[in-house]
Every structure is written in C-alpha cells, then in structure tokens.
Amino acid sequence: MHEFSMTTQIVENVLREAEKHNAKKVTEVHLAIGKLTFLGIEQVRFSYNILVEGTIMEGSKLYIEEKNGVVECSSCGYEGDFMYEDNPAYHVPTPTLRCPRCGGVVGIVGGRECTIKSIKLVV
Amino acid sequence: MARLKEVVKAGEGEIYDIELEADLLKANEELARKNRDLLKKHGVRAIDVMGAIGSGKTTLIEKLVQELKKKYRIAVFKGDLTTTIDAELIGRHGVETVAINTGKECHLDANLVGKALQKINLDGIDLLFIENVGNLICPADFPLGSEKRVVVVSVTEGPYMVVKHPFIFMDADVVVVNKKDLAQAMGVDIKKLTADVEEINPNVKVVATHSRSGEGIKEVVHALGL
Fold first, then answer.
1. Least enclosed by CB within 10 Å: which of A39, B19, B136, B137?
2. Mapping DSSP to helix (H, G, I), strand (E, B) and coil, where does residue A84 land?
3. How many helices (H) and strands (E) does chain A have?
4. Are the Cβ atoms of B15 and A122 closer than 8 angstroms?
5. Chain A residue nearest residue B107, CA to CA
6. What CATH number is associated with residue B164?
7. Residue B17: its chain A contacts at CB < 8 A?
C-alpha cells in the first residue's frame, strides 16, 4: 500500500549511487522483496516506471526477486518456511506463528526485507 | 589477507555492476531501535495502538488515560493524515498530546515518532501511547520502537476481518475486540473472532471491550501489564 513512497526511496537511492560513479545511464536494478511485507510487486513496477521517467534510469530493467517468509522457534530450534494452516471454516490457508514441529510459538526472521541488491551502470 | 594485484576500473562507456545490499525497511528498523533505546534510557514505556478507521483506537486511549493518569505521567502521540481533532479529544484529559500529521502517508514511521520524541520532556513522563494512522495494512511494515503493540478491531468491521488481515496480528501483544455491545446486532461471534486471532498468533492476549462505557478497560490494563 506504500509502494509509491518505497519506490521513490529506491529510485532516489539508485540515482544517488549512480551519481557517485558519474554514470550516464542505469541499465538494471535488482531488488529483493520479502513476501511478508505489504509491498505488491505489480504496484512497485507501476510506480517505478513512472518515477524513472526523465532520469538516467529511464528504460532500465527492473528485476524483483521475491523472498519467502522464514521463521525460527525458540523452543525446539526449528528454522524454515513460514506456515499457513488450512482453515476449513473459511476455505483459505491462514498464516500462523505456531511452530510446525513442536506447536510452540515462532518468530519471523526473514521475508520482511525490501533490498536494493545491485545495479548496473554505464559510465 | 590476500593482496590485491590490481584494481580493474571500467573505462568510458563500460558497464559497471554494483552490489548495494541496501535494505530500505531495515533503515526504519534501525530508527525504531534508536527510539526504543531513547525511551528505555528515560524509563518510558511506550505502547503503539493500531487498527482500522473507526475501530475505537482514540476512545480506547482516552479511557486508558482516565484509568491510568493517577498512576503514571502520560503522553500521547496521535497519528493522522491531517487534523488535530483526535489529539484535542485526548488532550482534554490533561495529558501532553502531540499530533503527528503524516500528510499522505498511510502509516507512522520510526522517523516521525523520533521527531515527536524530541518535542516532549521524556523525563516528565513514564508512559507513552502512540496512536497509529487508521489502517490495518501498512503499519505492520514499520515498527516504531514501542515496547508493546495493541491492535484494536471492532465487531462492526464484520465477522471475517481477522482472517482477512492476518499479518497485523502477528505483531500484536494485545488485541482488543471493541464494541462488544453491538456483537449480537452485527451477527458477530466474539469467541470466533478471538479464536481466529489466537490461531494466527498463539502468544497474543485478547480482550473484549465496550470502550465507550469503560467495560473491559481494566482487563486491557492488566493484559498490558500496566
């Protein structure tokens, strides 16, 4: 829901980095976005295309890698995929912080990032 | 350490690959940690209240202030896109209130809260309530540095609102199910709503309230350990 402001920050960061290297053009931007964030991939792309217009990023390729949610259990040490439980009452899988191994409570350790991994510049 | 033989530099028109690894949400987390450290240093406990528009966040805070103002010196940050209407409502109870207007942003962030923290005398308070912008989605991406997070839902939001917005409940320590007096009229089963929350986050404490009448407020105080 805050894709436009996040993408604004992404574009500003990339432009700042490009300026440091006196780049003429940015050709690629690689992002990693966690599935447990509230950033919609389509909306990020939409915002990106608008924001890069008229900058040296115009025409650059945007690559987005989606990162799975990762949880860790402090009781049994389980570390792995974030769980969804089948919920017959609603016919949808409900996300849960219950540990799939011991039934304890897990903490989220991954899947909440929004990272600019790398960029490609023409100098 | 291996010695660098030569640095290869790109010439004119060449392509340069740069590893950045800049996490933009981490930047907020860092600021939230700074807020948490600052609050801790001054012995202030901070509680962040999130929930949909009209769920009863402001009313809950007003009642908590009334209940607790003899025991604690309280301040309130009130986040809204615009207006100071709610901040004034809370201010009537004689506690220091700072309105944080986000403009167009759908959530408070740690930076705005950090700025508000500079506006109050932290040694003059022991307890801080931070009311987030009415929204069940975005605030979950932006921790503020509070010690506990409360999510308020009301039965007027319908029977499925918990399963429709599951992620915000994962960050909650206490969930308040408000407007319980209207449950029957709305055809909402509070037990079912409670079970939905507990399935998502087995650690959370759920309290049903009718905030306007004060019913359930003592239980919320207890659940927050205040």
1. B19
2. strand
3. 2, 8
4. yes
5. A2
6. 3.40.50.300
7. 118-120
**Is B3 part of a structural domain of the chain?**
no
Number of residues that make up chain B: 226
Q: What angle do CA A73, A75, A81 make, to 5 degrees?
A: 20
pLDDT at A91 over 90: no
To test the contact with chain A by mutation, choose from B138, B170, B191, B201 the residue with the greatest count of A C-beta atoms within 10 A, namely B170
| Mutate which: B9, B14, B16, vs A, most A CBs within 10 A | B16
Q: Enter the CATH code of domain A3-67+111-122.
A: 3.30.2320.50
Q: Average pLDDT of chain B?
A: 89
The residue type found at B210 is H
Is the pLDDT assigned to residue A7 strictly greater than 80?
yes
Nearest CA in chain B to A27: B15
pTM: predicted TM-score of the whole model, two decimal places: 0.84
Q: Domains of chain A: which residue ranges? A: 3-67+111-122, 70-108
